[in-house]
Automatic annotation (TrEMBL):
Database matches in InterPro entries: Crypto/Photolyase_FAD-like_sf (IPR036134), PhrB-like (IPR007357), Rossmann-like_a/b/a_fold (IPR014729), UV-DNA_repair_photolyase (IPR052551)
Domain of life the protein comes from: Bacteria
Organism, as annotated: Vreelandella neptunia
Stated name of the protein: Cryptochrome/photolyase family protein
Record PANTHER family: SLR1343 PROTEIN
Length: 516
């Protein structure tokens, strides 16, 4: 037998199951294909990241002694689809089986499963670079009415021993969120990111991305994502030394000028395989033991990875493919045009989208409470919003993007991801950020020409979705406030929101034009 070992763009780890116990005659295959760059309109940084990191990884594999076939974007015979490219090379090299680890997206998993009995059969292997497999999650979920992160996370802590003192959680509590909600402060200084050197391989990859996909969001002038394991380790160490200690406290803060604050920006490196979630959590735990970072920061950080990251992946694989078509609140609106160009006078949205255009990054609270919250309040349909998040962020892969967008932001999954929608008015953004002082609107008014649009949209959302939400015990208080409003006030708010929505420009945006 002579296997072809297919390594996908987000499987850049030497520990990958596909590569274990490879026979001497195995052919490792990596493919740059236009289909993967265009199925949603990816940000140019994301495309540059995949091309550069894949090219570097193929070199690392050759150094390890693997026989590597690399399909480059410009190869004349490139078929530009992952499935057909693997099969073409298998035939060319005389391979009789194709091995691949579980991909990051259902559409590929399904296409691969359909080839299990093909002339050259595909063999699908589990991707064990996570703390849990989809089967582990399904077993945990079996028979439970609610799939709450908190319970999943505690089990993960016990199972891995991370931040455990015997049977007890380190610091005496499982959760230190209470200490982690501080708003932005003027005096804060945020760490600068390390600047990564661009060698000839990286420069070549970025030039190819530019040449083929210059119509995509962003420019490559400030590209600074880690594209090798070595660079990713530099970022990891830098975060542990300069970011982690303050991570917890300012986890929910939003800044008008700083894109990263004390966030790690390690998601892209972890998601494509340059760093393992285990080593990232262990590094954070070590900082706690050495007294370099407090428990609220370390616990908060580890919960994001050991808890949320594993949880959303489990949910994705357990609930797909039906999950993707869920739309519990029946939303139908197209994506507002400014999500593509930041052209809005709402300062918080302008900054979140502009930072996204500049860096292919926005931190969690921008994604959830600014662009996400706005889309929720306006009723943007899940497929339009999901395609945007999947395209614009360098760390986006459907297994992690979809539950966050469809479940956490849009509450489209009937409350699996969150017991209540993360809806908020301008008051929340005003409390957590320094945006409003730069905005032409005021968060203190609900109606009138200067009123922050989030305010009327918030009440309008609650009113419109009352049938589905007003029985929710966690929404009782807020529906109580709504019901105490006078009819005139409610009518004025409704009119304010509806006239805002009527003038909200939706455009086919970049997404559609790119496909034509
Ligand atoms: P930090 O704040 O430093 O957090 C540390 C790590 O925890 C992250 O690197 C990430 O691996 C993990 N993490 C944190 N929050 C989550 C979460 N909610 N779900 C899963 N992992 C989490 N994350 C992605 O990796 N890819 C995506 O495509 C993605 N899409 C998102 C879409 C929406 C609408 C929302 C609300 C969140 C999304 N997230 C996604 C989660 C989160 O916003 C990012 O992981 C985080 O902003 C990445 O930046 P960071 O590495 O600086 O994270
Ligand atoms: C996102 C992306 C891009 C832009 N390009 C490629 C590519 O050329 N080759 C590849 O194997 N993967 C690419 N990817 C990632 C894929 O879209 C997909 O998410 C993963 O391969 C699934 O594991
Ligand atoms: Fe955003 Fe409203 Fe504040 Fe303007 S006033 S920055 S729109 S929350």
């Amino acid at each position: 037998s002579k296997p072809l070992l297919l390594v996908l763009g987000d499987q850049l780890s030497l520990s990958l199951t596909t590569l274990q116990d490879a026979p001497d005659n195995a052919v490792v295959v990596m493919c740059e294909v236009a289909e993967e760059a265009r199925y949603v309109p990816h940000h140019i940084h994301k495309i540059g990241l995949f091309l550069a990191a894949m090219r570097h990884f193929s070199q690392a594999l050759r150094k390890k002694g693997f026989h590597v076939h690399y399909s480059a974007l410009d190869d004349a015979d490139n078929t530009h689809s992952l499935i057909s490219e693997a099969e073409r090379i298998a035939e060319q090299c005389g391979c009789d089986e194709i091995h691949v680890a579980r991909p990051g997206e259902w559409r590929l998993w399904e296409a691969m499963q359909q080839r299990e009995n093909a002339t050259i059969p595909w063999r699908l292997l589990e991707d064990d670079r996570f703390f849990t497999t989809p089967d582990d999650f399904a077993n945990w979920a079996k028979g439970r009415k609610q799939l709450r992160l908190e319970y999943f996370y505690r089990e993960q802590r016990k199972r891995t021993g991370l931040l455990m003192e015997g049977d007890e959680p380190a610091g005496g509590k499982w959760n230190f969120d209470h200490d982690n909600r501080q708003p932005i402060k003027a005096a804060l200084e945020f760490p600068e990111l390390p600047q990564h050197h661009q060698d000839e391989v990286t420069k070549g990859a970025l030039a190819d991305a530019e040449c083929h996909f210059s119509d995509h969001m962003g420019t490559l002038a400030n590209f600074n994502l880690p594209v090798t394991r070595k660079q990713a380790l530099v970022d990891l160490k830098h975060f542990m030394q300069h970011g982690l200690a303050q991570f917890g406290r300012y986890q929910d803060a939003i800044s008008d000028s700083a894109p990263y604050l004390y966030h790690s920006r390690l998601s892209a490196a972890m998601n494509i395989g340059l760093l393992s979630p285990h080593e990232v959590c262990e590094a954070a735990e070590q900082c706690y033991h050495e007294g370099d970072a407090p428990i609220n920061a370390v616990e908060g950080f580890i919960r994001q990875i050991l808890g949320w990251r594993e949880y959303v992946r489990g949910l994705y694989w357990t609930k797909m493919p039906r999950y993707k078509s869920a739309n519990q609140l029946g939303f139908t609106r197209e994506l507002p045009a400014f999500y593509w160009d930041a052209d809005t006078d709402m300062r918080c949205l302008n900054r979140a989208v502009q930072m996204t255009i500049d860096n292919s990054y926005a931190h969690h609270i921008q994604r959830l409470m600014v662009t996400g919250n706005f889309a929720l309040l306006c009723g943007v349909k899940p497929e339009a919003l999901c395609d945007w998040y999947l395209g614009v962020y360098a760390d986006a892969s459907e297994w992690v993007e979809l539950p966050n967008t469809l479940g956490m932001v849009l509450h489209a999954d009937g409350g699996l991801m969150g017991s209540k929608p993360y809806c908020a008015s301008g008051k929340y953004i005003d409390k957590m950020s320094d945006h409003c002082q730069h905005c032409r609107y005021t968060p203190k008014q609900i109606t009138g020409p200067n009123a922050c649009p989030f305010n009327s949209l918030y009440w309008h959302f609650l009113e419109n979705n009352a049938e589905q939400l007003n029985k929710n015990p966690r929404m009782k208080l807020i529906y109580g406030s709504l019901s105490r409003m006078s009819d005139e006030k409610r009518e004025a708010i409704r009119q304010q929101a509806e006239s805002f929505l009527a003038q909200l420009e939706v455009s086919p945006g970049y997404g559609q034009t790119c496909h034509t």
